[in-house]
Amino acid sequence: MQFMSSNSYPIGTPGQPWGAHEKAAWLARQRVQRSYADEVEQHILALRDVFKVEQYGQLTYADGDYGLYGLRSAQWQPNLPTALITGGVHGYETSGVQGALRFAQTQAADYQGRLNLLIVPCISPWGYETINRWNPDAIDPNRSFYVGSPAGESAALMHWLTRMNVQINMHIDLHETTDTDNSEFRPALAAREGKTHDNWNIPDGFYLVGDTFSPVPQFQRAVLDAVQAVTHIAKADENNQLIGSPVVQPGVVNYDTKKLGLCAGVTDALYVTTTEVYPDSAMATPEQCIQAQAAAVCGALGYVLRLKS
User: Fold this and answer.
1) Predicted TM-score of the model (pTM)
2) Pick from 106, 108, 95: which is nearest to 39 by CA?
3) pLDDT tens digit string along 55-72?
4) In sequence order, what are the beta bridge partners of 172?
5) Is 217 helix (H, G, I), strand (E, B) or coil?
6) For residue 6, is it within any domain?
7) 273: number of Cβ within 10 Å
C-alpha cells in the first residue's frame, strides 16, 4: 500500500516536535465522520436489563460532550473472579468497540454466575467519531495510563477502577491495526515527535500482545485457539517478528505494558492480553474481525474458568 514518509506530513517542520500551533493545526483537520451516540452509546444503554450500566465519566470537547460508560454484572458476587474487557482505547479501531459490544449483547449472559464482568466498549468516543487514534489534544490514550495522565479518557477509566476497589483477575483489551496506520497515524506520530519513522510493518491477521514482565503463554494460546476458528492468525515476518517485536510464540509478542502506559497495564491482573486484528486483510471482513474480538474474549474467559474449576 502507499504511505507518506515521515518527512512529508503536512503539519510541522521535519526534525522539530510539535508545539501548540501545530497541534491546533492538526485538530483543525479533524472532522466527525460517524455517530458515537447512534452506533455505540444507545447500544450500551439498551443493555440496562442485563447489566448495571455506570456512567463513569464525561468528556467535554469542541465537538460535544461524550458520556463514558461501563457495564457491570448485575448479579455481582465478590467470591467470583473478575474480568475486565476494554475496547476503543483507540477510537478508530472499530472492531474493538463493536467486538466488546457484540460480546456483551450475545455472549455475556453465558458467564452469569460464573464470573464478574466489567465491560468498557469505547474508552475514546471522540476518537470513534472522528476515526482517530489520538484525542483532541493530540495525545494517545493508549500511552497515557499512568498517575497524572494528561488524557481524560485514560484518567477517567483509572479513576473508575480505583473507586470500585475490585481485584481484577483478567483483562483483555481489544485493538486492531488498519492501513491508515501507515497512511496517517504513524506519519503523524513521527511528525509530532520530530522523528523519522521506519517501521511500516502491518501483520496480516490476528495476533496478541502480552506483558513482557508477566508472560502467560498458555493464556495467550487459549485466546488464539478460540480466534482461529473465526479468522487467520498473523504469521511472523522474515525476522521472526510482528510489528517490529520478536515473536515469543506463534501469534504473540510482548510489550512492557506499564512502562509504555498501555491500557493493558492499567490493572495488576495476572491474565492480560491485547488483541490486534487487521480488517483491511484480503482474507478477512470487518464482520469477521468483530466476531474474532468476541471469540477472543470467550477464549480468555474460558481459560480463567478452567483454572477455577
Assistant:
1) 0.96
2) 95
3) 999 999 998 999 999 999
4) 85, 273
5) helix
6) no
7) 27
